[in-house]
Design goal:
- The chain is α+β, with helices and mostly antiparallel strands.
- It has a domain at 24-68.
- Helix content is 19%, strand content 33%.
- The chain contains 1 helix and 4 strands.
- The longest helix is centred in the last third of the chain and has 13 residues, at 56-68.
- It comes from Streptosporangium minutum.
Amino acid sequence: MKDPGTTKGYGPEPAPLPCGTAFGHGGGPGFLVVAFDSADGSRQVTLSITPFSRDHHQAAMTLLTSAVCP
């Protein structure tokens, strides 16, 4: 997952995880909506964050890994 604001477009973004690559989208300016699926489609996660601090990226990646990786 790339940090919001670093890419433009609406296509799926790859998120490399310990269990493989998940695909989804990381949100837009001023907010973070992470919606990712495992590569085989068996697990999904959606998270919405209003990032008031710079700590949100690591927290989102930790949750994404816990939810998508078996």
